[in-house]
Amino acid sequence: MGIGFFQYAFSTTKNHLSVDSQKKSPKQKQETPQNSQSSVPISHIPIKKGENILFVPIENIVYFEAFDNYSFVYDKKGEKKLCDYSLLFLETRLGEEFSRVHRKYIVNKGHIEQIKPHLNGRYVILFGNQISPVMSSKSYSATIRKLIKIE
């Protein structure tokens, strides 16, 4: 049986990772109007490597790719690793340096080297030699235009 990361709340305080492993009943979670930690952007992503769990700093992550209820993390070395978080969860917890460009991808703006127009309002996002490019979808073309203008 594996470990689910959703039973833990990860947050950072002065670059230290803290883990709140207190389990709350679903009723307790509903009573709190706004979970105080849900608005704090996460700074590290837990990655499964064999039986171990590594914490990768988000500044080293180039993009996330959806895979079922999990996601793959692509780091700046071009390595692909499995993450226990879904893109929906990541989208709500990542900081402003990340943007959703496709239902399948969330990219780190800081690692984008080039954006090329493609057919029908889509774009190809290039990161570097070792990292595979990502294709945006037409429905996220407004997000890409914001990226091009560098807000």
Write a structural description.
The protein is mainly beta and 151 residues long. The protein has one domain: LytTr DNA-binding domain (OB fold (Dihydrolipoamide Acetyltransferase, E2P), Beta Barrel), CATH 2.40.50. It has three helices and twelve strands, in the order ββαβββββαβββββα. It has a five-stranded antiparallel beta sheet with strand order 7-6-5-9-8. The termini are far apart. The N terminus is likely disordered. This is Response regulator transcription factor. InterPro entries: LytR-like (IPR046947), LytTR_DNA-bd_dom (IPR007492).
The description of the largest β-sheet is: 5 strands, antiparallel
Which CATH-level-2 architecture? Beta Barrel
Radius of gyration: 17 Å
CATH topology: OB fold (Dihydrolipoamide Acetyltransferase, E2P)
Element string (H = helix, E = strand): EEHEEEEEHEEEEEH
Which spans have pLDDT < 50 for at least 5 consecutive residues?
Answer: 1-36
Protein name: Response regulator transcription factor
Pfam family, one: LytTR
Domain HTH LytTR-type: 45-150
InterPro entries: LytR-like, LytTR_DNA-bd_dom
Summary, kept brief:
It comes from Pelagihabitans pacificus. The chain is mainly beta and 151 residues long. It contains three helices and twelve strands.
Topology summary:
Blueprint: E1 9-13, E2 16-20, H1 26-31, E3 44-49, E4 52-57, E5 61-67, E6 70-75, E7 80-83, H2 87-93, E8 98-102, E9 105-108, E10 114-117, E11 123-126, E12 134-135, H3 141-148
Antiparallel strand pairs: 1-2, 3-4, 5-6, 5-9, 6-7, 8-9, 10-11, 11-12
Region (Disordered): 19-42
Protein name: Response regulator transcription factor
Biased composition (Polar residues): 31-41
